[in-house]
Input
Amino acid sequence: MNDVLGECLSPHVAAMRRDCGRLQWHLRCSGRRRVRVVAWTCPCLATVYELCASGGRAFIRRTVQAEPVPMICETAWGPPREAWEIWASLLTGRVR
Ligand SMILES: [Zn+2]
Output
């Protein structure tokens, strides 16, 4: 993490709190559907989270950068407002 040097432009997820909730992660289901990534965490960490929107709905995508292929999971699609709430909880370590 290069945060101390000020090189990271995107947020990092906070450490999990003790009462951290668990999100339901599903294997990637958006497939090749076009989604808009509206927020993302810093790619300097192995796990990158993205808030994606498509057709009036939104979800969180989790990518674990690994060789030979990244592991991609997603939360269930839902109203954007819910997705933003999950996003805020994710960044502050309240869910993972
Ligand atoms: Zn970073």
Observations:
- The pocket of zinc ion is lined by residues 1-3, 8, 12, 42, 44 (CB under 6 Å).
- The chain has one helix and five strands.
- The CA atoms of residues 55 and 66 lie 30 Å apart.
- The chain has a mean pLDDT of 91.
